[in-house]
Amino acid sequence: MKTIVKKFGGTSVGSVQRIEAVAQRLKKDVESGQSPVVVVSAMSGETNRLVQLANEINSKSRGSSYDMLLASGEQVSIALLSMALEKQGLKAIPLLAYQLGIETDSIFSKAKIQSVDAEKLKKYVSEGVIPVVAGFQGVYGDQITTLGRGGSDTTAVALAAALGESECEIYTDVPAVFSADPRLVPKARELTKIGSSEMMEMAALGSKVLHFRCVELAAKFGVKIHLRSTFEEREGTWIVPDEGDDMEAPVVSSITHEAMTSVIKVFPTPVGPGFMATLFGRLAEKGVVIDIITQSFNEEGQRLAFSVHGDDVNEAEEILRSVLPSSEVEISVINNMAKLSAVGVGMRTHSGVAGRFFEVLNQINAQLYLVTTSDIKISAVIEQSHLQEAAQALHKEFGLDQ
Amino acid sequence: MKTIVKKFGGTSVGSVQRIEAVAQRLKKDVESGQSPVVVVSAMSGETNRLVQLANEINSKSRGSSYDMLLASGEQVSIALLSMALEKQGLKAIPLLAYQLGIETDSIFSKAKIQSVDAEKLKKYVSEGVIPVVAGFQGVYGDQITTLGRGGSDTTAVALAAALGESECEIYTDVPAVFSADPRLVPKARELTKIGSSEMMEMAALGSKVLHFRCVELAAKFGVKIHLRSTFEEREGTWIVPDEGDDMEAPVVSSITHEAMTSVIKVFPTPVGPGFMATLFGRLAEKGVVIDIITQSFNEEGQRLAFSVHGDDVNEAEEILRSVLPSSEVEISVINNMAKLSAVGVGMRTHSGVAGRFFEVLNQINAQLYLVTTSDIKISAVIEQSHLQEAAQALHKEFGLDQ
Question: Tell me, what's the ipTM?
Answer without folding.
Answer: 0.81
